[in-house]
């Protein structure tokens, strides 16, 4: 008598992990509506579940500088600041500056020098 293992199907494996209950009108694969103006109010996303991942390689000196900045902010603000949150906040600042000043922005200047 062979044993047959019951495996979950694709629907169970790739189901939405959002906290809200899915309604018949919305499917799990439907993309979320884009914000009307994504550049109007950028800020670091803080401590939320992130659906996308991006790997960035840094030098040991850059990593040390990030750690020192994280610890300095932790001391000054009195709250835990993780590296991801720090990087997301810095990215939001850079993107706001780019949106406001275009090619005169700090990030454009740094990329021009590189």
TrEMBL record:
Q: What's the source species for this entry?
A: Aeromicrobium halocynthiae
Bias (Low complexity)? 19-41
Give the organism's phylogenetic lineage. Answer: Bacteria, Bacillati, Actinomycetota, Actinomycetes, Propionibacteriales
Its name, as the record gives it, is: Ribbon-helix-helix protein, CopG family
Query: What's the domain of life for this entry?
Result: Bacteria
Q: Residues annotated as region Disordered?
A: 1-52
